[in-house]
Amino acid sequence: MGFGIFELFKLVGALGFFIYGMKVMSDGIQKVAGSKMRSILSKMTSNRFLGVATGFMITALLQSSSATTVMIVSFVNAGLLTLVESIGVIMGANVGTTITAWLISLLGFKVKISAIALPIIAIGFPMMFSSKSSIKSWAEVLIGFALLFMGLDELKHAVPNLKENPEFLGFLASYADMGIFSTLLFIGVGTILTLVVQSSSAAMALTLVMCYEGYIPFELAAAMVLGENIGTTITANLAAMVGNVHAKRAARAHLIFNVFGVVWMLFAFQIFITNIDTYMINNMGLSPLNFDMENPVAIPLGLSIFHTTFNILNMLFLVGFVPLISRIVIKMQPSKGEMDEEFHLEHIGGGLMQTGELSVLEANKEVTKFGNITTRLFDMIPELLKETDIKKFNNLMARIRKYEDITDRMEVEIADYLAKASQVEISDSASVKVRSMISMINDMERIGDICYQLSITIERKREQKAYFTPELRTSLEEMISEVQKAMIIMNKNLNSSYSQVLITDADEAELAINKMRNKLRKKYLQNIEKGEGKIQTGMIYNNLIHSLEKVGDHVYNISEAITGK
Q: Residue 447 has what pLDDT?
């Protein structure tokens, strides 16, 4: 039987089956561990060596270095990890991804897991209908695990039979004896294969199957593995395209790390291959360099040893150079400046959305930034009130208008992102947090609107030459100061863990603002009764006091939303 278009579709379908199983299992694990992922990362990335261990552990669980690296890029994008911390985790992820090869080599070729795949699905299927999200997530893990090995079994059957297709082996053999050029060629094949399937684990599975069937010799399969190490970095770099400058740097660090590893391995390639062959002959009685149809498992095992040893050595060589790699990627990907980061959403982007839990964390960081921008906008009001130079006054007015426009846009974009995050399955606590954040961004946008109205009132005061007495000016400054104190409390609460925030400080600040408002209004009415001051000036003053009190109300609403009230 020849290898035609139908057989090609079967091969692609089997590969898709394998990747889908891996995705279902990986998504399930992320949902199970998603809410705990932040605390794990924060506790275990305090130094680069713990970061390496964290990356290894997470990738060993998720069975996908691409999933881990995209997740790490997302955490860097959200400001939950620094660049240096992320590089250590990515190094660990490279070692963790070798577990997939061992699973396939030890279980996929020796143990017929596909035979018990259906019973595993039988266990997981009823769990899918549970009302508890955690049980449903575990069901996805079980079903994904079963599908992954069913896909691997189909992949083994879909790869064309060597005896019936000798021309295929002849085609590969023609490129096998060209020395370093053959190695470079198959590194390129491995890179392209990983780019096409968007999964180094799937590319590794296909390489192992081709080795097992005797299609490609051990040396060329090892070269393909090196290429897959480069190809897997593309996924994170694609994800980082929609991220901020920090996410792009983390992705570039991954690329540098893996490319450097391949470069040094090229010089030691033949020695490395020979030593693995010698080790296996002496300890296992198997030789991956001399293919034996009676015992073909030698090649997948040898390839797993090569993959693991290479990644561990590469990590050990470079773990001491993490700060240097950090400096290199900062030069490669310079920041576009403060203005670029100040007026654009930094932490969220559609291309980076992974699990709902992670998306909520990223949105939370953006809401915190929104609070800082709102505070910066409000701080322009006392500046505007004191400004006497007409040119500086107009520039400040333009700045306030620009910031008000930013608050409008941020509310819409964050709300859209939160809506998308809510469409996937998230925990009850994350769901409550989403509702709180939607409430918060609405209040922040209203603060922006009120600040713009305050600037219009101050501009009208200037045009009408309405003069405030020193007493009125002092009163306004006191009211503004009370609102600024409330905003400091608001930002402190936004930067804290929501579950630990108490409303006490915000209550006191709100009472102080209301008390100040009542005192100033009473004083204003008394002055009106006595006929002191112009009515027009008094109305402008009263409007400013009323608007400042409204800002205080919205600031208090934000702290209420944080505490869940």
A: 94
